Amino acid sequence: MGIFKNLNLSESLKIFKKSGKDVYCAKCGTRTGIITRQWLLDDKCLCVNCQNVIPAYFQRNYGSLSFETYNVIASYMTGESKELGKQFKKKHAFLDLQLDAVNGILRYKTSNANPLYVKLENISDFHLEYHPHLVQNGTSSITMTLECINPYLVIQEKLLSTGSEYDCNQFMKYYYSIREMREGQNYVHGEQGGAKSEYKSYANNNTEDAQLQKALAMFMFDSINDVTAEKLKAQRNRLIKSFHPDANSDEDTRYAQKINEAYELLHKYVK
User: Fold this and answer.
1) Could you give the CA distance from residue 244 to residue 248 in angstroms, rounded to a whole number?
2) So what's the pLDDT on residue 221?
3) Among 27, 95, 132, 135, which one is least packed by beta carbons within 10 Å?
4) How far apart are CA 24 and CA 33, in angstroms?
5) SS3 breakdown of the chain: % helix, strand, coil, rounded to 5?
6) How far is CA 206 from the centre of its chain?
7) Higher pLDDT, residue 134 or 218
8) Which pTM value belongs to this model?
9) Which helix (H) or strand (E) holds 255?
10) Which residues have C-beta within 8 Å of that of residue 116, sequence separation ≥ 6?
11) How far apart are CA 125 and CA 211, in angstroms?
């Protein structure tokens, strides 16, 4: 145990604390604990209170978040998401997901994490993929994909469930029907291998204008008038760093591809 060999726990902790310099939270300025602090991609640090502001999915991926991206997510959570939470009225539920049919809001919350509330109109992609071949001891695996427009957020993670494939598909049907009722648009419902449900909104997702708005949100521009070639390139480099496509992760490669596609679209408007 080195220098701690003949010391009691209290003395060991004193030496442990003195061995590192003070590090302060980049968000609130509070001194961080050596055990509880979390480091972001750009070597900035967060205290435990600021960590808990954002959804659990992002808390598990601090190493791929820049401070700028953290700020965007945190601002949404303490602003719009918090206000939507005050309006939320649960109608349908499945695992960590809940739907408000009256106000058109999706709620996502895992364990003790801060809940995420999103207006359905602000969702560009949402689906649940049930994996029947992964069912073991009555527990199934479900992959959830949630992609929001403004701010641009992507959450893709596996949910363990004792729920059935029927329950999974039923929740998606509620989701589709609420969107159709609110937006008066036709959605395509499909199933692949009896497991995956997808939708596509012809009015919202297939026009270049909608793609432009999505690209602006991803690159954190309020308007196309704010975009210059220099700003666009700098922001692209910051976003690409967040996903490390060179690490050969399929998920990171997919996100990097989306960033590049959005970059090419925006670049057409600033040439």
Assistant:
1) 8
2) 80
3) 132
4) 9
5) 45, 25, 30
6) 23
7) 218
8) 0.65
9) helix 250-270
10) 55, 77, 81, 107, 108, 109
11) 13
Give the residue from 79, 114, 94, 225 showing the smallest Cα distance to 162. 94
Domains of the chain, earliest start first: 22-78 (no CATH), 92-206 (no CATH), 208-271 (1.10.287)
| Tokens read off for 143 | 């992959």
Six token digits for residue 137: 């001891």
The answer for residues whose C-beta is within 8 angstroms of residue 28's C-beta and 6 or more apart is 47, 49, 50
Q: Which distant-in-sequence residues (6+ apart) come within 8 Å of 178 by Cβ?
A: 99, 101, 104, 120
Nearest to 95 by CA among 144, 154, 133, 147: 144
Higher pLDDT, 260 or 183: 260
Residue 99 structure tokens: 């739907």
Among 2-16, 129-143, 184-198, 210-224, the range with the most confident prediction by mean pLDDT is: 210-224
Report the alpha-carbon distance of residue 92 to residue 177 in Å, rounded.
Answer: 12
Which residue did the predictor score with more confidence, 163 or 196? Answer: 163
Which residue's structure tokens are 């659990």? 56
Instruction: For tokens 């109608």, name the residue.
Output: 91
Instruction: Specify the pLDDT at position 208.
Output: 59
| Six-digit token string for 248 | 């050969």
Question: What residue type is 149 in one-letter code?
Answer: I
Burial class for 94, CB neighbours closer than 10 Å (0-12, 13-18, 19+): buried
Confidence check: pLDDT of 254 > 80: no
Q: Pick the residue with more confidence: 255 or 81?
A: 81
Structure tokens that stand for 225 in this block: 């008038």
